[in-house]
């Protein structure tokens, strides 16, 4: 999907960091009521999507830094009998993620970014290519599917492992305010296939 990417401007690092800071501030300004409404709307959108609900293995994330809250969605997926997985910082391959099965009995720990993650248990690891849907967090996105993350590159490196013929759908989740006119693209960025906000469904394929 590299044809979606736009030319990299000369001031790429500065531009990306300024955009990242600006959009993070926008979502941090959302009130608790707005966050709750957005999370509820997201869960309703996805729960009512027959195509998505036909899948079984869903990777999500736990919200941090005013990201779109996934807890109502996780509960809805559990209620529908779906398997949910959360990212864990890879213990042996720095910069990569593992996805571990997550349920109400999961033992959680706080990682070095102060984000809760399931305690590592190799028996609960799901290979990335075996997931049906990976819902990814992000800082900003544009109308052609370019995604700006927090800058660590964890999702880009991990998603790059997906084979070209993988049936796994990568879907971004974001607040409405996180859409921007254009995301400055770097060579390592993995564009989104789809994205869902509380107000809209985007298909970039």
Automatic annotation (TrEMBL):
Pfam families: 5-FTHF_cyc-lig (PF01812). Substrate binds at residues 62, 67. One of its GO terms (molecular function) is metal ion binding. ATP binds at residues 16-20, 147-155. SUPFAM superfamilies: NagB/RpiA/CoA transferase-like (SSF100950). Residues 16-43 form a coiled coil. Its EC number is 6.3.3.2. It catalyses: (6S)-5-formyl-5,6,7,8-tetrahydrofolate + ATP = (6R)-5,10-methenyltetrahydrofolate + ADP + phosphate. Its cofactor is Mg(2+). The keyword Nucleotide-binding applies. One of its GO terms (biological process) is folic acid-containing compound biosynthetic process. The keyword Cell membrane does not apply. InterPro entries: FTHF_cligase (IPR002698), FTHF_cligase-like_sf (IPR024185), NagB/RpiA_transferase-like (IPR037171). Keywords: ATP-binding, Coiled coil, Ligase, Magnesium, Metal-binding, Nucleotide-binding. Belongs to the 5-formyltetrahydrofolate cyclo-ligase family. This is 5-formyltetrahydrofolate cyclo-ligase. It comes from Arsukibacterium tuosuense.
């Amino acid at each position: 999907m590299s044809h979606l990417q736009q030319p990299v401007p000369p001031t790429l690092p500065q531009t990306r960091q300024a955009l990242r800071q600006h959009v993070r501030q926008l979502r941090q300004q959302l009130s608790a009521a707005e966050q709750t409404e957005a999370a509820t709307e997201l869960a309703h959108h996805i729960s009512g999507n027959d195509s998505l609900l036909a899948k079984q293995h869903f990777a999500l994330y736990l919200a941090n830094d005013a990201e779109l809250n996934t807890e109502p969605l996780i509960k809805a997926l559990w209620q529908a009998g779906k398997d949910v997985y959360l990212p864990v910082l890879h213990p042996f391959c720095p910069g990569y993620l593992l996805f571990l099965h997550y349920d109400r009995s999961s033992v959680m720990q706080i990682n070095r970014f102060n984000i809760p993650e399931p305690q590592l248990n190799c028996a609960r690891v799901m290979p990335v290519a075996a997931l049906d849907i990976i819902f990814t967090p992000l800082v900003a996105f544009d109308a052609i599917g370019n995604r700006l993350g927090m800058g660590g590159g964890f999702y880009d490196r991990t998603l790059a492992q997906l084979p070209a013929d993988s049936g796994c759908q990568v879907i971004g989740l974001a607040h409405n305010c996180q859409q921007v006119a254009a995301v400055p693209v770097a060579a390592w960025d993995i564009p989104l296939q789809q994205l869902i906000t509380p107000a809209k469904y985007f298909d970039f394929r």
